[in-house]
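Course assignment 3, question 2. Fill in each field.
Student: A.L.
Task: Predict the tertiary structure for the chain below.
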Amino acid sequence: MSAIIRVSNVSKIYEGGFTALKDVSLQIREGEILALLGPNGAGKTTLISTICGITLPTSGTIDVGGFDSQKDFRGARSLIGLVPQELTIEPFETVMNTVSFSRGLFGKSHDAAVIEKILRSLSLWDKKDSQIRTLSGGMKRRVLIAKALSHEPRILFLDEPSAGVDVELRKDMWEVVKSLAAEGVTIILTTHYIEEAEEMADRVGVINKGEILLVEEKADLMRKLGQKELQIELQEPVLALPESLASYDLTIEDDGNKLRYAYETTGNRTGITALLADLAAAGMRLKDIETRQSSLEEIFVGLVKEKA
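Answer field:
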């Protein structure tokens, strides 16, 4: 897939010297879902604001669908829909008028069929005549997405789309995002919910202290950086490991009833066969064996700590 967004050597330094972005380069492919992860203050929102033209970069260039974001702001911005973190909607306006007004702001002619399609896709059609103030937090979040889609953009930025939304509505939001991606919309989301990225993203980017640490296919990232663990349940508990097992990365858990063995998935040998043989030789009888893969959250936390 070709890149629809190209960020090249972008930095943002505010008055006073604070550097929010440091020489960021990033290519976002057309039609993908990219999850941008990072702790508070990492630069996620600044990067989005800079791509959308809300914030001007100190240096570097940004190309959006062939438009330079600074030299042809209107062309670039016309391709982008932005859903901000804050619920900034007029509370006494109706859903229909709110979304229709946003379409008009981009110079698009009134098209009732387009607005109806958007509202139906977000399960908002039956709320079209309701005032915003009467909606739940999750529904208001959907209205923000409808506003962002009103001018039929090719790119959608979701800045913390599930903030303040309960678990059930969060899962509904995931389905909405997946359906938009299926229609060819390129989606970039920032999130604190690691399971959100694990559930939806094609690729994962990690940003910290204004720098992109990596951008990887989700599956590749988990395969390359993830660890697997072998959890061994013993028939009799142990208080300490014999000297013959000292070379293994073993941890005693559950009052001596379990052993945990960590190993790299990318290694030529896992050492499991030798470990099991040595456990038998040490007189330890096994009750059960289970493996588990590191989660994306564990990988993310490890990366941020490593680069801190």
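Instructor remarks: The CA atoms of residues 102 and 147 lie 6 Å apart. The mean pLDDT is 86.
Grade: pending
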